[in-house]
Amino acid sequence: MPTCTPERTQVGIVGAGPAGLMLSHLLGRAGIESIVIDLRSRDEIEHTHRAGILEQGSVDLLVDRGVSDRVHRDGYRHNGIELAFGGSGHRIDFQGLAGASTQLYPQTDVFIDLANARERDGGDVRFAVTDVSVDGLTSDSPTIRFTDSNGAAHEIRADFLVGADGSRSLCRHQVPEAECTQYFREYPFAWFGILTEAPPSAPELIYNHSPYGFALISQRTSKLQRMYFQCDPGENVDDWSDDRIWDQLQTRLGANGYTLKEGPITSKTVLPFRSFVQEPMHHGRMALAGDAAHTVPPTGAKGLNLALADVRVLAEELERAVRSHDAAPLATYTQRAVARVWKSQHFSYWMTTMLHTLPDASPFDTRRQEGELASVTGSVAGSTYLAEAYTGWPGSK
Ligand code: PHB
């Protein structure tokens, strides 16, 4: 192993997805140095399709903190969604019920904006590294070691570390079992996700419950659409021809009176479903943020929004920690972040179980689910909860 001179920084961040880059950006604005590393190349992250809905608070964070205003120009404002079941669609009017909207703007674009902003502001982001390890989390100088994309070994000594390294987090695994609690829930289904070169089939998202299973109709642009349908977690994309996919989607949407506009399918992936939280969201001088600390199933599009909400709080607490040379603000981060984490966990779980077809559902389960959907869409109180949670609890801190 070649020797290297250790580098110093104030905050070492593992993971250059939206959480890691936004954190580095916010710290930079507060005059705090950071180095961000990622195992993936920039190109690989840019081409991983993820969810596409931003809460108002996420849009504000991107715009007000000077990342980009492209989200307004290239995104699409949505003032509601359709919940389709029992033969027809039922609109949830976000503006009327919660005075808020969402913005259709894919996570890959959020990543591109953040990576460009870090480059513009002279941020230190190193993609495509290998052999990452973290060490000394409870010491005064936690360390990240890695090999850069040219094969050179590096050691970074930081005042604080952040694991923003996604659901298969390496950082999370450094927390001793006795020091944390992990909460899990598995689901007996997954989503089959596609991108299709077709015009939009609807102006807003359709969350479609049907006897044939759940489907979600989302959009990307006037020429590219994103759609999902509930499938078995073991499904293999190679078994699904375009015709077979369109047949499934048309049958599910047709049950509620919709017809989809078809086009060539350019991407097919199976997305696993899982709910997970690790508490506390810090250990010694390391904090966890985004999917490294918690995973939500994709129904309701909370994952990215929750990650951005984490780092908004974490940047404030890390600023205190760096300035006071004290790890106590990391405990305050956990305290402040965790309340939103569990509200988002509940909302994602609730949307998931309300809308999907359970493989072993009894006739009672099915009829009860229809009763639940009717209770939500038929009541101002019921639909207001959905509107507030979906748009990100407007006014909450
Ligand atoms: C998406 O557009 O990818 C999307 C939208 C809403 C969700 C999940 C994914 O709940």
Automatic annotation (TrEMBL):
Pfam families: FAD_binding_3 (PF01494). It comes from the Bacteria. SUPFAM superfamilies: FAD-linked reductases, C-terminal domain, FAD/NAD(P)-binding domain. This is 4-hydroxybenzoate 3-monooxygenase. Keywords: FAD, Flavoprotein. The keyword Flavoprotein applies. It comes from Flexivirga alba. InterPro entries: FAD-bd (IPR002938), FAD/NAD-bd_sf (IPR036188), RIFMO-like (IPR050641). Residues 8-345 form the FAD-binding domain.
